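Just curious. Invent one:
>
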Amino acid sequence: MRLLVVEDDKNLNKQIVTALEQAGYAVDAAMDGEEGQFLGETEPYDAIILDLGLPKVDGVSVLTAWRREGRKTPVIILTARDRWSDKVQGFDAGADDYVTKPFHMEELLARVRALLRRSTGHATSEITCGPVKLDTRSGRVAVDGNPVKLTSHEYRLLSYLMHHTGRIVSRGELTEHLYDQDFDRDSNTIEVFIGRLRKKLGVDIIQTVRGLGYLLDASQTKP
């Protein structure tokens, strides 16, 4: 999953980005509303964390512009304001959730997980596909109850596919959603990670759909 953090406080921005990266996400960052709005319009994020009190363009204006253009990316707003009217304004502009500063990082991470689950139609932190279970809260993967150790990139790939179980995902989409803006992207590496995942999982749930991409389908699991 790929996220965008738009926060003008340099230290807080770095703390959020670091926490999200450690949780297994690919993360881009912007320090003002103008840059944040541009990235949100040009990059395919799975969720955005947006501060309201931004320089150049305020967060509500940024969010309003995204929604006016029909962009449906889930957004969590950050605000140091404790007035209920500011929260209402954020929700009316199109926000999906909010966190009031100061906040505990674990709360923000939990809200991000919940937002991503809801946006892809999952009800709990544990996502299953046949014998494979992925716990988005702990970042652990198990097959038939047996833990499977994955690298960060392998986990990102499996997590994205499991969040989109039953839908064909192209290599291009995977490349766009698994790597941040500064990563040297090469869609051929996706094939390498798919091969490693299949070997480590040991079950046939990742199907290759020729010319289209990959499909996670538990019905094809071999006994």
